[in-house]
Amino acid sequence: MRFFIGDSRSESLALYGNLSDADYFTNVGMSIFEVTEVRAGNLNLREQITLEEKLEQKQYGKIYLILRLNELGTGTAQSWSDTYADVVAQIRKEQLDTIIYLQSILPVSAENDNPNDAINNAAVQDHNRALEHMADPAQQIYYLNVAEAVTDANGCLNAAYTSDGIHLLENSLYLWEDYLKAHAVLPDAADASVIS
User: Fold this and answer.
1) Dihedral sign (CA 163, 15, 73, 92)
2) Which of 21, 50, 144, 170 could connect to 16 by a Cys-Cys bridge, CB 3.0–4.6 Å?
3) Could you read off the pLDDT of 14-53 as tens digits, one per residue?
């Protein structure tokens, strides 16, 4: 079973996506700094539990983590990276055999890309590079650049896929879902580049 941990973007997958065999721990505005403390869950089940409680409920085959846009203006890059690594370690402690995917942060549209604002695509790219460095195939932790499925030629969120410059439209979620399906790592693959 797939398990998604994330903010409002992941909530869209829970509410409007078409992924079968999926569970969710999502909350609007949730950041990496609070994911282990906040009470959230699967909106479809009206859950309000902690991440630890959720992870104790069942063993997941694949866990997809995508958090960061909400906290681009808080903390330092190092504090963010350290906290992210701590959250991944906690997930691994509860889910020893699962594959963990660190999904890239989705960029904002060109209209929302303000270099003078905390949330901008240069910051998104910097943090995505840090996520990529956190990947450790030997520990079944992989980086997925899902952003490339929804960006335009300039690396911004494609305006055709969004109404607010941040969230994907309901009819664009399939691009994200298809990317995840196409880049799934086979659990016992000797070569991590093998996809199912």
Assistant:
1) negative
2) 170
3) 999 999 889 999 999 898 999 999 999 999 899 999 999 9
pTM above 0.85, yes or no: yes
Q: Which two tokens stand for residue 86?
A: 């701590």
Secondary structure in 3-state letters for the chain: CEEEEECHHHHHHHHHCCCCCEEEEECCCCCCCCCCCCCEECHHHCCCECHHHHHHHCCCCEEEEECCHHHCCCCCHHHHHHHHHHHHHHHHHHCCCCEEEEECCCCCEHHHCCCCCCCCHHHHHHHHHHHHHHCEHHHCEEEECHHHHCECCCCCECHHHECCCCCECHHHHHHHHHHHHHCCECCCCCCCCCEC
Of how many residues is the chain composed?
196
| Whole-angstrom Cα Rg for the chain | 16
- Tokens (6 digits) for 6: 């994330």
**Cα(132)–Cα(130) distance, rounded to whole angstroms?**
5
Q: What are phi and psi of 82, to 5 degrees?
A: -65, -45
Q: For residues 130 and 80, what is the distance between their CA atoms, to the nearest angstrom?
A: 10
Residue carrying the six token digits 């869950």? 41
Q: In what side-by-side order are the strands of the sheet with 99-103?
A: 22-26, 2-6, 62-66, 99-103, 141-144
